[in-house]
Amino acid sequence: MKQVILGTAGHIDHGKTSLIKALTGIDTDRLKEEKLRGITIELGFAYLQLPSGETLGIVDVPGHERFVKQMVAGATGIDLVALVIAADEGVMPQTQEHMEICQLLQVKKGLVVLTKIDLLDDPEWLELVREDVRTFLQGTFLDGAPMVAVSAATGEGIEEL
């Protein structure tokens, strides 16, 4: 059986770990300090059986700028990336930094996941964020990549993903 490795990328608190838990049921934050602080510090790992029979291995990386070395370690050798962007905040500094790292590591495939859509009060905001993200990704390997809007809290969009 073939295994594909998906790595997350994105700004701190944009929902990478919550997204993985919603998809797999696995909480990749396992350290006491991660639980106390509510942030990913070390690489986390999960897996998902795909309908095709393939196993999707998932690497959850920290989004905090202080843990960029762990992000680089986790992104090395991934087959595709899920660039996670919180819909209520949009593109942020670590979003940009993680994209640059993925490009330097020559990641070729991926998708964009807009998270936290349950926090949006104005339905038009999501379209504004989509446009901002499309502009940000122009000329990158994610230019034209699939973009899925989800809420890990409510489950909206998870099945589509």
Notes on the protein architecture:
The chain has 161 residues and is of the alpha/beta class. The protein has one domain (3-149): 3-Layer(aba) Sandwich (Rossmann fold). It is built from five helices and six strands, in the order βααββαβαβαβ. It has helices at 16-24, 32-37, 68-75, 93-104, 123-137, and strands at 3-9, 44-49, 55-60, 80-86, 110-115, 147-149. A six-stranded mixed beta sheet has the order 2-3-1-4-5-6. The chain starts with a strand and ends in a 12-residue tail after the last strand.
Secondary structure: elements and pairs:
Elements: E1 3-9, H1 16-24, H2 32-37, E2 44-49, E3 55-60, H3 68-75, E4 80-86, H4 93-104, E5 110-115, H5 123-137, E6 147-149
Parallel strand pairs: 1-3, 1-4, 4-5, 5-6
Antiparallel strand pairs: 2-3
Features:
alpha/beta; globular; Rossmann fold; 161 residues; 6-stranded mixed β-sheet; 6 strands
Please outline what is shown here.
This protein is α/β, with parallel strands linked by helices and 161 residues long.
